[in-house]
Amino acid sequence: MSLIRTSVRQFLHTRGFLRFSSRGYAKEVSTDKICLTFSLPHNVLYNAQNVTQVNIPATSGNMGILALHVPSIEQLRPGIVDVIEENGISNKFFVSGGFAIVQPGSSLCINAIEAYSLDDFSLETVSEKLQEAQKIVSGNGSEEDIAEAKIQIEVLESLRESLK
Fold it and tell me: Where does the ATP synthase F1 complex delta/epsilon subunit N-terminal domain start and stop, copy by copy (predicted)?
């Protein structure tokens, strides 16, 4: 038995499977900025860019995230992600859902399914689409059509409130 154990250890050491851990030291962290990565499946809106604050629509409620925020994982509901850049400019994006991950060291990763600038929407168009979805829900559509329309209503109502 000892021969097998010795042979396995030698194999693992020579192949690099067993590595001894080494101590890592903390990096210097900015106390007033957040390193934001905001990505979509098809695009990256912010790539490790320092910002002052990010406001997100979490399922637990709206949250403002500043530097040195406690680490957490938040599910996003449809709503506005407000990114306040270092120069004070606020960029607002409507997201349909996703996750925000606050990591130690003032790092924030937002992964959203879709995100669009609020400037891309008009209140009139959103109201029209909302009425169409409400007609489907109250009409004689299939179960699948009604389920999709209910999701559209949730998203469009949130978007309409954001545009007011």
Answer: 40-104
Q: What are phi and psi of 24, to 5 degrees?
A: -105, 150
CA distances from 7 to 3, 16, 18, 126 (A): 6, 14, 14, 69
The Cβ of residue 145 has, within 10 Å, a number of other Cβ atoms equal to 14
Structure tokens belonging to residue 149: 């329309």
Per-residue pLDDT reduced to its tens digit, 83-112? 999 999 999 999 989 999 999 999 999 999
CATH number of 32-117: 2.60.15.10
Of 90, 103, 98, nearest to 51 by C-alpha is: 90
Q: Residue 127 has what DSSP assignment?
A: H
Q: Are 106 and 29 in contact (CB under 8 A)?
A: yes
